[in-house]
C-alpha cells in the first residue's frame, strides 16, 4: 500500500512538472493606434510582435493576435517620420511586461521629420567591441569623427546609423559598457540602430533565445525593420548561440525567416533593401569556390534562403565580425559589405588585421541609388588607400605595393613613373607591410598575444621599370572618384 501511494505521488509530481514546463500559448490580442503628434492617423504602418505583422488601417488602428511568447510589440518606422529616441537608442517598441491580460493596448506616436528623405545618409560601422575603461576614449574619438563629418558635409540631410554587432567585448563580463556606448553614440544626434553580435550574447544563457536577454534589455528586439526615403531597412539576428562561448554559428532561425517573409511581402519588387547583421554571408574561401573551408562561426550557414528572399530587390547586405574590410558582388542585384572593425585589432593598433584603418562606411542615398565610401578616423575622406615603396616586403623586394581597403572588381589601380601611366597594378593575396611592421614592433605590449596581421586580397603590386623614377599611384573607384597617393617608406 505504501509503495502504491509513493508511486502515485511520483506520477502526480512528474505530471505537475510537465504542466509547469508547458509553453503558454493562450491568445493575447494587441490593439492600438499609430498617430502623429497632432493626433492624425498614420495608415499603412507595419506592426509586429516578432512573429506576425499587420498593417494599420485608415484610422491608424491595428489588431494583432499574439501569445505570451512575444516580448515586444513594435512598428516599422515609416519614411517621413523622425526616428523616436528613448534611453539613448531608437524607441519603436513597447515591452510586454504583463502577459496575463488577454487584451492589451499599445499606441505609438510619431513626429513628422520635415526633411526630404529621398536624399539621406547611412553611417555603418561594426565591432566597437569595448572591453576596458581605457578603450572608451578611443571609441569617443571615432564617434567624434562621425559627428564632425555629418556637421561638415551633410547639414540639412536625414542621417542615421547602424552598428553591425559586437558592441561590447564580453557582455557577460562587462555589461556596464553598453549604456555609456549608447550615450556616446546618442550624443552625436545621429540615431544609431543596433544589431546583436556574438560578443553581445550571455554565454551563460541556457539557449539561443536566453543568450540575448541582456541585449534586448539594452536595445530592444534583435530583428526589426524601418524605412528612410525609398529605402527599406532590415536588421536581423544571425548569431545563433550554441553554448560554446562566443563561437556562435551564423544562422537565421525559422521564426525570424517567417517574419522576414512577411516584412518583405509589403515591399514592392524592385525596391532598394538594406539588410544589416553581424556575421557575413560570404567569405574569401567562397569566392575561390573552397566552400568546404568555410568555418561555421564565420559565415551565415543558410545564406541561400536569405539570397532567395532578396532576389526581387536591389539589396545591400551590411555585416562585420571579421575585423577586415571586404566587398562581395553576390549577384547583379545583391552586394555585401563586410565592415572593418571600429576597434581594429582590438584597440591594440590603428589598423585592422588587413591594414584597413579604424573607420566606418558612409552610404549616400538618392532615391533608389546609392554611393559609398570608407571614412578613416582622423583622415580626410579622400584617404582611400595606403602604398609603400620597394623594399618593404621581403617577399616582393622590388615591388611598389598598394592596399586599397574598399576595393571591389569595378575599381582600377594604376601606377605612374615620372608622370607616365605604366598600367594597372596586379592584385594579390598577402599581408600589409605596414601592419606587419607595426605588429613586430609592438606585439610585446598587446593585451592579447594571439592577435596580429592577417591576409587580405585587396593588395596590389607592380615593379617599376625605372628604379629612380618618381612614383605615384592612382585609384579609381566604382563611382569614378579618383584618389592619388605617393608610396612611402616604413619607418
Feature tags:
491 residues, globular, alpha+beta, Purple Acid Phosphatase, chain A, domain 2, 8 helices, Immunoglobulin-like, five-stranded mixed β-sheet, disordered N terminus
In CATH's first tier, which class of the largest domain applies? Alpha Beta
Low-confidence stretches: 1-20
Number of domains: 3
CATH homology group of the largest domain: Metallo-dependent phosphatases
Mean pLDDT: 93
| Shape call | globular
- Class by helix and strand content? alpha+beta
What is Rg? 25 Å
Tally the helices: 8
CATH topology of the largest domain: Purple Acid Phosphatase, chain A, domain 2
Helix content: 10-25%
Instruction: Outline the biggest β-sheet.
Output: 6 strands, mixed
| Terminal Cα span | 90 Å
Spatially, the strands of the biggest sheet line up as 14-15-18-19-21-20
What CATH architecture label of the largest domain applies?
A: 4-Layer Sandwich
Number of strands: 31
- Sheet-strand content, in percent, reads 25-35%
Report what the structure shows.
By secondary structure, the chain is α+β, with helices and mostly antiparallel strands. The protein folds into three domains: 28-112, Carboxypeptidase-like, regulatory domain (Immunoglobulin-like, Sandwich), CATH 2.60.40; 119-376, Purple Acid Phosphatase, chain A, domain 2; 386-485, no CATH class. It contains eight helices and 31 strands. It has helices at 2-21, 136-153, 178-186, 213-219, 254-265, 284-287, 303-310, 433-442, and strands spanning 28-36, 46-48, 53-55, 61-66, 72-75, 85-86, 89-90, 93-95, 103-105, 108-110, 119-125, 158-163, 192-194, 224-228, 231-235, 239-240, 249-250, 272-276, 314-319, 326-331, 334-338, 359-366, 369-376, 386-388, 400-403, 412-417, 420-424, 426-430, 456-462, 471-476, 482-485. Helix 2 runs parallel beside helix 3 and helix 5 runs parallel beside helix 7 (303-310). One of its GO terms (molecular function) is hydrolase activity. This is Calcineurin-like phosphoesterase. It comes from Dysgonomonas hofstadii.
Amino acid at each position: 500500500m505504501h509503495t502504491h501511494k509513493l508511486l502515485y505521488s511520483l506520477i502526480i509530481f512528474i505530471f505537475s512538472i510537465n504542466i509547469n514546463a508547458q509553453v503558454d500559448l493562450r491568445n493575447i490580442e494587441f490593439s492600438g493606434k499609430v498617430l502623429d503628434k497632432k493626433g492624425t492617423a498614420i495608415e499603412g504602418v507595419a506592426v509586429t510582435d516578432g512573429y506576425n505583422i499587420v498593417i494599420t488601417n485608415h484610422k491608424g488602428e491595428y489588431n494583432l493576435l499574439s501569445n505570451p511568447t512575444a516580448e515586444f510589440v513594435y512598428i516599422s518606422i515609416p519614411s517621413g517620420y523622425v526616428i523616436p529616441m528613448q534611453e539613448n537608442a531608437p524607441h519603436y517598441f513597447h515591452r510586454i511586461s504583463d502577459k496575463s491580460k488577454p487584451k492589451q493596448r499599445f499606441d505609438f506616436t510619431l513626429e513628422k521629420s520635415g526633411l526630404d528623405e529621398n536624399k539621406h545618409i547611412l553611417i555603418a560601422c561594426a565591432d566597437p567591441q569595448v572591453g576596458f575603461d581605457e578603450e572608451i576614449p578611443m571609441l569617443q574619438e571615432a564617434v567624434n569623427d562621425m559627428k564632425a563629418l555629418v556637421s561638415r558635409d551633410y547639414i540639412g540631410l536625414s542621417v542615421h546609423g547602424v552598428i553591425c554587432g559586437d558592441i561590447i567585448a564580453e557582455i557577460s563580463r562587462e555589461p556596464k559598457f553598453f549604456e555609456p556606448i549608447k550615450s556616446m553614440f546618442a550624443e552625436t544626434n545621429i540615431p544609431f540602430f543596433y544589431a546583436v553580435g556574438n560578443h553581445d550574447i550571455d554565454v551563460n544563457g541556457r539557449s539561443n533565445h536566453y543568450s540575448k536577454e541582456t541585449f534586448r534589455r539594452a536595445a530592444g528586439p534583435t530583428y526589426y525593420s524601418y524605412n528612410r526615403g525609398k529605402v527599406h531597412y532590415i536588421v536581423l539576428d544571425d548569431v545563433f548561440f550554441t553554448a560554446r562561448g562566443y563561437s556562435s554559428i551564423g544562422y537565421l532561425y525559422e521564426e525570424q525567416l517567417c517574419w522576414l517573409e512577411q516584412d518583405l511581402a509589403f515591399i514592392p519588387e524592385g525596391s532598394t533593401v538594406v539588410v544589416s547583421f553581424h556575421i557575413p554571408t560570404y567569405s574569401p574561401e567562397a569566392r575561390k569556390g573552397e566552400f568546404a573551408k568555410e568555418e561555421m562561426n564565420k559565415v551565415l550557414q543558410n545564406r541561400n534562403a536569405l539570397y532567395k528572399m532578396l532576389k526581387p530587390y536591389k539589396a545591400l547586405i551590411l555585416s562585420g565580425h571579421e575585423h577586415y574590410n571586404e566587398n562581395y558582388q553576390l549577384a547583379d542585384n545583391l552586394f555585401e559589405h563586410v565592415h572593418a572593425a571600429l576597434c581594429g585589432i582590438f584597440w591594440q593598433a590603428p589598423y585592422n588585421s588587413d591594414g584597413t584603418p579604424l573607420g566606418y562606411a558612409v552610404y549616400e542615398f538618392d532615391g533608389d541609388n546609392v554611393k559609398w565610401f570608407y571614412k578613416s578616423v582622423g583622415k580626410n575622406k579622400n584617404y582611400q588607400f595606403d602604398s609603400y615603396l620597394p623594399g618593404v616586403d621581403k617577399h616582393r623586394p622590388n615591388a611598389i605595393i598598394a592596399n586599397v581597403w574598399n576595393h571591389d572588381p569595378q575599381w582600377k589601380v594604376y601606377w605612374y613613373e615620372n608622370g607616365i601611366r605604366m598600367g594597372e597594378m596586379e592584385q594579390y593575396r598577402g599581408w600589409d607591410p605596414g601592419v606587419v611592421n607595426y605588429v613586430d614592433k609592438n606585439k610585446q605590449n598587446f593585451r592579447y598575444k594571439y592577435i596580429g596581421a592577417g591576409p587580405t586580397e585587396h593588395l596590389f603590386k607592380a615593379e617599376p621599370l625605372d628604379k629612380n623614377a618618381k612614383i605615384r599611384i592612382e585609384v579609381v573607384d566604382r563611382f569614378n572618384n579618383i584618389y592619388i597617393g605617393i608610396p612611402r617608406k616604413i619607418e
